[in-house]
Structure formats: C-alpha cells, structure tokens
Amino acid sequence: MAKPVSIEVWNPNGKYRVVSTKPMPGTRWINLLIEQDCRVEICTQKKTILSVEDIIALIGDKCDGVIGQLTEDWGETLFAALSRAGGKAFSNMAVGYNNVDVNAANKYGIAVGNTPGVLTETTAELAASLSLAAARRIVEADEFMRAGLYDGWLPNLFVGNLLKGQTVGVIGAGRIGSAYARMMVEGFKMNLIYYDLYQATRLEKFVTAYGQFLKANGEQPVTWKRASSMDEVLREADVISLHPVLDKTTYHLINKERLATMKKEAILVNCSRGPVIDEVALVEHLKQNPMFRVGLDVFEDEPYMKPGLAEMKNAIVVPHIASASKWTREGMATLAALNVLGKIKGYPIWGNPNQVEPFLNENAQPPAASPSIVNSKALGKIKISNVGTVCLTISGFAGFKALSSQQLHHIGA
Ligand SMILES: NC(=O)C1=CN([C@@H]2O[C@H](COP(=O)(O)OP(=O)(O)OC[C@H]3O[C@@H](n4cnc5c(N)ncnc54)[C@H](O)[C@@H]3O)[C@@H](O)[C@H]2O)C=CC1
Ligand SMILES: O=C(O)C(=O)CO
C-alpha cells in the first residue's frame, strides 16, 4: 500500500477532478481548469520522481484526468487505474512521450496529450548554447578562472573552434532540429547537413534564401544538404546536434562504431533523449579523443550519468533543462491542462499541433479544443481544422458545433 501523498487543492467543489502529479509553473493552467468547473489537485510530495504506486494513490477512486511528467512510467498499470477511476484523459507536460505506452492508453480509450511547439525555440537555444560552450570551452575556462589559475593572457589558453564556415549537422530536423539549424546557420554562418526521414522543405528554403542574401552582400553563401544517411552527417559535420524522437529506430543511434566515423575534433550535442546515445561508448570515446567534445542535456539512465562521464573535461553536462524558460514551462503547463480539459469537455482536437499560439495568448480565451492528442487517430477523435484560422476563438462546445463541415474532419476518414 503506497503512503498517502500530500496534495494542494484548488476549487474543492469542482465537478471534474483533475490531478497534476507535480506543481507546474504559473497559475494560468490552474485558472483555466477551475473556470471550467474542475477541482484541481496538485501533488506536493517532496519526491522528485513519483513511483507507479504513488500515482495510483493520487488517482484514487474518482479521477477525470491526470497531468503527468516525463519521469513517470505511464503504462498498463496506470492507465488501468485511471480508467477504473473513470478517467478519460492524460497529458504529459512534455512534447516527448516515450515514457507513455500509447497502446495501453488506447486499450482504455484514454486520450494522451503532449505539448509541442511551445518549447521549440527554448530547446533549440539550449542546444545552441551547448554547441557554443563546447566549441569555446566555456565551462573548462570558467572552472580554471574560479580555481585561481589564471595568471595572464596566453596565446594558447583555451583555444577552441571557430564555427563560421564549418558544417553543422542535424539529426532529426523536425520542429526543434530545424529551429536549431536556423540559429546555427543564421547566427554563425555555418553550412548545414541534415538527416531526417522527411524532407525539411522550409528549412531548406530558409538556408537557400539566407545564402542568397549573403552572396548579394559580397559574403560567402551558406549551403545546405539533405544527407541520404545518418552516417553521411556524422562523417561530414563539425558540430552535430541530435533532435529525433526516442523510439526503437533511434535507440543507441550513436554507438561505438558511429562515434569512430566522426571527426576527431567534432562536437556532439544531445537535447533529445539520453538513450539515443550509447553513453558507455561515448565515455570511452571521450577518453580516447580529448579534442572531441560533447554537450549533454539528457542521459541514458537519467538522473544518473554513466561511470566516468562526470570526470571528462571534454563533456558539458546539464540536468535536462533544455525547455526551462519561464514562458515555455508556463506554456507547457497550459497546453497539458487544456489537453486534459478538452477531453473532459468533449471538445475536438486542434488540427495543427505546430500552431499552438492561440492557446498561449494570455489575453484571450483559448480555443475550445485539445491542443495536441497523440492518439487521436486511434480514438477516432474529431479534429478541428485551424489552417488559416489561427485566430479562431470559439468558446465552448456550441461554438464548435457551429463550425462548417469543411472545418471538421474525422482523422483518417
Ligand atoms: N531535452 C529537452 O528538454 C527536450 C527534449 N525534447 C525531445 O526532442 C524530441 C523532438 O521534439 P520535436 O522537434 O518537437 O519533435 P518533431 O516530431 O517535430 O521532430 C522529431 C523529428 O525526428 C525525426 N525522426 C524520427 N525518427 C528518426 C530517425 N530514425 N532518424 C532521423 N530522424 C528521425 C522525425 O521525422 C521528426 O522530423 C522530442 O520527442 C523529445 O524527446 C523535446 C523538448 C525538450
Ligand atoms: O518536452 C520534452 O520532451 C522534454 O524533454 C521536457 O523539456
């Protein structure tokens, strides 16, 4: 039997019971829920990662929906418990949902939400920060300074890499990978090589246009190339940033053999998920190649690092903070809450999870829709088309009913 968990309750008389497994930034998400007759219960237990038993205790006998975290194991056991409690909705407060067994959720008819878009630029900025910090050895130099070792300017002190004119490689050029690529190309005039299962057309157009602009101004134009294999990126790029989803196809994408194909002085950045890199192989590679550098936000056995990593001077390690800007974290909380609310209220699903701005406008009511439900197709949920209607502010289900048939379609229909 799990110990009782401590909770904070908002709007105790609300009709729908929504549980958040963690306090989340801001209050807008709470207000949006209580305005719609939800009783909001927030777990305030001083324990960073809640166990399945803890969460079962939180769900209790009656629960309409849960907002959870990427550190939690949302599988058969939890979805069965949520279903028994009458729950119909779960949302991760994260865009990645590799901690969620979506098939198990489908089995119980539970909607699974995530929070795309609002963290794109923030996460890309951290990847860019790690790239720069690694290229210019900022963490090593900072430690040196604080240790009182600086006794005067020297021609060879902390010499790093110039990014301008080098090649940036992106693996997984989706929302975040493309945003990172744009930052590195525009900010540092790097050439781009990327690998993704799909063509990143907008990104290609951006680099082409920027290259033309530079050329027109008498500068060396930047270039882009879509690689036909990931290995091509690893061989050619000077800085490589990983941004794919974590699934069976990307587990240990970077392993001993692939590390060996990279340039000896390359920089590798990971702001996706830890298991995309074989971290044991990485530690060995860092030991053998002191000029090879990494910037890591995520770890294979998070929150732990593989033995030896913490001692490596050529590794910069930060604790999974890539999405940690105030605006983004508050926005993630809002999207997660609205995903759960949308299902409870029977709203349709927003048609384009890449255009979530209307949900984030603090001066307007959010659209009556769930911003992003990843298993909408399996649940046969109605999608609302927001193409060209990003300012749509229908309020309530009646507004949704009033939409024309062109604006609604069944997924897969
Ligand atoms: N460190 C952090 O705090 C954060 C980490 N993330 C991670 O970043 C991931 C990506 O997020 P978004 O860019 O929003 O998702 P996205 O879905 O827009 O992009 C992922 C891209 O990976 C590509 N991809 C999938 N399998 C691949 C493969 N085998 N090889 C190459 N490319 C492949 C997809 O085609 C897609 O373009 C999330 O799933 C999450 O795990 C996201 C936000 C913050
Ligand atoms: O959204 C995600 O996937 C995260 O990793 C949280 O920042």
UniProtKB/TrEMBL annotation:
Domain of life: Eukaryota
Annotated compartments: Peroxisome
All copies of domain D-isomer specific 2-hydroxyacid dehydrogenase catalytic, residue ranges: 34-346
Any GO BP annotation: oxidative photosynthetic carbon pathway
Main subcellular location of this protein, as a coarse class: other
Span of domain D-isomer specific 2-hydroxyacid dehydrogenase NAD-binding: 130-322
UniProt keyword annotation of NAD present: yes
InterPro entries given in the database record: D-isomer_2-hydroxyacid_DH (IPR050223), D-isomer_2_OHA_DH_cat_dom (IPR006139), D-isomer_DH_CS1 (IPR029752), D-isomer_DH_NAD-bd (IPR006140), NAD(P)-bd_dom_sf (IPR036291)
Any single GO CC term annotated in Swiss-Prot or TrEMBL for this entry: cytosol
Name assigned to this protein: glycerate dehydrogenase
Recorded metabolic or biological pathway in which this protein acts: Photosynthesis; photorespiration; 3-phospho-D-glycerate from glycine: step 3/4
Keywords: Glycolate pathway, NAD, Oxidoreductase, Peroxisome, Photorespiration
Similarity field: Belongs to the D-isomer specific 2-hydroxyacid dehydrogenase family.
Gene3D superfamilies found in the cross-reference section: NAD(P)-binding Rossmann-like Domain
Keyword Oxidoreductase recorded: yes
CDD domains: GDH
Top enzyme class: oxidoreductase
Reactions that this protein is recorded to catalyse: (R)-glycerate + NAD(+) = 3-hydroxypyruvate + NADH + H(+)
EC number: 1.1.1.29
GO molecular function terms attached to this record: glyoxylate reductase (NADPH) activity; hydroxypyruvate reductase (NADH) activity; NAD binding
